[in-house]
Structure formats: structure tokens, C-alpha cells
């Protein structure tokens, strides 16, 4: 791992795995210039190995903390590992970061290094954009998430919060190929809403996920939160999988080989599936963090301008 050189202009970092391939590298300069009044800022990527060494995470956090023109960062893929490795280096965490033991945003304010978990907000805004109102209470479907990282935790926190009343999934099923993350999300789901029926399944192989998917009710929400199809090729499912009828299918990725998305599209007509990719989530996730790092408001017209630019560039 090679640390960036000290910044010579106000810099936002993107801590990920294959950051150079992200659309944000082209989108952000236009946001900064045309929508947000941040013409004097730049974005740079920091690539780290998945589940990297704690020392590497600490070096990155130390660099951002002590470099005057390094303003903050968006964190993806490494949200939990970075939090665990460097949590003692922060002066402030928001309640979500402390509750879920992860962070997606690093920023500075009044001499403090601050960490935020923005995913519960950005995932919630995205879910509201495509899940019909009163979907759960009217349809009685289930939530099936493949992957147990920060995004899966955030989605559960939003959909299962007690303030939703009866409008929550009839059951939550989380499948993951490693046990520690599975145990952690189980602990958190029970904390968020102990009354919701939930199952947490170790699924090291795609055929394990296929078998679980075959038992999911119609009118459910099925999510790929594994990262497969973006930073690593493939899908958590095989091409022989069977999606439940009349269901919502969410691929959290918006780039990469997007195998999961293609698997759903192959069954879209026959199974009457609504399919959402990760693009709206990408926009909400980034605008939330940019607002925090530069202490600006990105709502209303500002958000609409960012969304318009992003969608234009995607075409």
C-alpha cells in the first residue's frame, strides 16, 4: 500500500478496492464545479486489499487526520475493517457508526476527526425510491440479503426499525460465506428489532444461496450485498437460480460484470420482477458524504443538480 503525497489543494479521498474504475472520478469534478461550489477541491482514490492489514487502515486514517488539506473520505468495502482497526484515532462517531461498528465517512470539524455511518440514510432514501408504499404490510413478503457487511446492516436498520410498525418484512434471511460477519449482523438485527422473525445462514457456495432463494416467498426483496460483480467477478447465485415471483431484486453494484443483475434480467418477464441496480444508491451515498466532508447542504435543488449530472454522465 502506498500512501498519497501530502495534498496541495482541498482533497476528498475515496477509500476502496478499485477506485479508479468508479464513475465518481468523472462525476465528482462536475458536481464540484457545476452544482456545489467546490471548484477548489479534487478527489483521489486510495486502494486497499479486501480485509487488509490493520496497520494499513491506521496509516490511511493517520494521514488524513494530520494532513491539513486532506478533508476527509468516503469508505466503501472496508467500512467495518477500518472502524475496527482505527476507531481509537477518532474523536467523534455518530450513533450509527457506534451502533453498527462501521463507518462510511471520515471528516474533520473543529479539530476533531469524525466518523459517520451514512449507509442507513443513503440506503433508506434509495429504498424509498423503489419499494412501493406499504409494500410489506400489504404483500407479506420476505427480505433476503446475500452478504453481511455494512450495507446489509444498514438496510436491515432501515427496514426493520420499530417505528415502521407492521410495515416490515415478514421474515429476514441473511446469508454469508463467513461466520464472524454473520454472527455480528445477527446480534445487530436482534438489537434493532428483536421481534422480527430472522434467520442467519452460513452459505459458502453459490448453490447454498440457490437453495435459500428457492424457499423465499413471492413479493419479497432479494439483495446482492456481497460485492461480487463489482470488485470481484461473479454472483452469489448460480445461473440456475430461481427468483421468487412478483419480487423486487436489488443489485447494490452499478459497475463491474454485474452477473447478479443479468441473472435477474433473464427471469424478469417470466417472474414479473422489478430490478434496481446500484446507481441511485451511488448518488445518495456520495452526496451524503460530500456534504459531511465539506460541511455543505446537498438537498433540494443542489441534490437534483447532482442527480441530473450523474445520470447524464451514465448515459
Essential attributes:
315 residues, 2 domains, six-stranded mixed beta sheet, six-stranded parallel beta sheet, Rossmann fold, 12 helices, alpha/beta, 18% strand
Q: What does the model show?
A:
42% of the residues lie in helices and 18% in strands. It has 12 helices and 12 strands. Helix 1 links the parallel strand 1 and strand 2.
Give the secondary structure arrangement, pairings included.
Elements: E1 10-16, H1 24-35, E2 41-47, H2 54-66, E3 70-75, H3 79-86, E4 92-93, H4 95-100, E5 105-109, E6 112-116, H5 119-130, H6 135-139, E7 143-146, H7 150-159, E8 172-176, H8 179-192, E9 198-202, H9 206-214, E10 221-224, E11 248-251, H10 259-271, E12 274-276, H11 279-294, H12 300-314
Parallel strand pairs: 1-2, 1-3, 4-6, 7-8, 7-10, 8-9, 10-11, 11-12
Antiparallel strand pairs: 3-5, 5-6
Helix pairs in contact: 1-12, 2-3, 5-7, 5-11, 7-8
Poorly predicted ranges (pLDDT <50, ≥5 residues)?
A: none
The CATH superfamily of the largest domain turns out to be NAD(P)-binding Rossmann-like Domain
Give average pLDDT, whole number.
Answer: 95
CATH architecture of the largest domain: 3-Layer(aba) Sandwich
**CA-to-CA gap between the ends?**
34 Å
Structural class by helix and strand composition: alpha/beta
Number of domains: 2
Shape: globular
Number of DSSP helical runs: 12
Q: Provide the CATH top-level class of the largest domain.
A: Alpha Beta
**Physical arrangement of strands within the biggest beta sheet:** 2-1-3-5-6-4
Order of helices and strands: EHEHEHEHEEHHEHEHEHEEHEHH
CATH fold field value of the largest domain:
Rossmann fold
How much helix, percentage-wise, in residues? 40-55%
The percentage of residues in β strands lies in 15-25%
Amino acid at each position: 500500500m502506498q500512501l498519497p503525497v501530502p495534498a496541495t489543494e482541498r482533497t476528498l479521498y475515496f477509500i476502496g478496492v478499485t477506485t479508479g474504475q468508479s464513475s465518481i472520478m468523472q462525476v465528482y469534478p462536475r458536481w464540484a464545479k457545476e452544482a456545489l461550489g467546490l471548484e477548489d477541491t479534487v478527489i483521489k482514490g486510495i486502494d486497499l486489499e479486501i480485509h487488509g492489514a490493520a496497520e494499513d487502515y491506521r496509516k490511511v486514517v493517520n494521514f488524513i487526520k494530520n494532513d491539513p488539506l486532506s478533508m476527509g473520505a468516503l469508505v466503501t468495502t472496508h467500512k467495518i475493517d477500518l472502524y475496527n482497526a482505527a476507531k481509537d484515532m477518532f474523536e467523534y462517531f455518530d450513533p450509527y457508526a457506534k451502533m453498527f461498528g462501521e463507518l462510511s465517512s471520515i471528516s474533520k470539524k473543529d479539530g476533531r476527526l469524525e466518523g459517520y455511518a451514512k449507509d442507513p440514510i443513503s440506503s433508506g432514501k434509495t429504498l424509498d425510491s423503489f419499494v412501493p408504499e406499504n409494500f410489506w404490510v400489504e404483500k407479506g413478503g420476505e427480505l433476503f440479503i446475500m452478504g453481511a457487511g455494512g450495507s446489509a446492516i444498514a438496510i436491515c436498520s432501515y427496514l426493520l426499525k420499530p417505528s415502521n410498525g407492521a410495515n416490515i418484512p415478514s421474515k429476514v434471511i441473511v446469508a454469508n460465506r463467513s461466520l464472524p460477519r454473520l454472527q455480528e449482523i445477527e446480534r445487530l438485527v436482534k438489537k434493532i428489532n428483536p421481534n422480527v422473525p430472522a434467520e442467519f445462514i452460513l452459505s459458502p457456495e453459490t448453490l447454498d444461496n440457490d437453495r435459500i432463494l428457492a424457499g423465499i416467498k413471492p413479493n419479497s426483496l432479494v439483495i446482492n450485498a456481497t460485492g461480487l460483480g463489482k470488485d470481484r467477478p461473479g454472483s452469489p447465485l448460480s445461473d440456475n437460480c430461481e427468483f421468487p415471483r412478483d419480487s423486487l431484486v436489488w443489485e447494490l453494484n452499478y459497475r463491474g460484470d454485474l452477473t447478479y443483475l443479468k441473472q435477474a434480467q433473464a427471469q424478469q418477464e417470466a417472474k414479473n420482477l422489478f430490478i434496481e441496480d446500484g446507481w441511485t444508491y451511488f448518488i445518495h451515498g456520495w452526496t451524503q458524504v460530500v456534504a459531511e466532508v465539506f460541511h455543505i447542504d446537498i438537498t433540494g435543488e443542489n441534490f437534483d443538480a447532482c442527480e441530473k449530472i450523474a445520470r447524464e454522465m451514465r448515459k
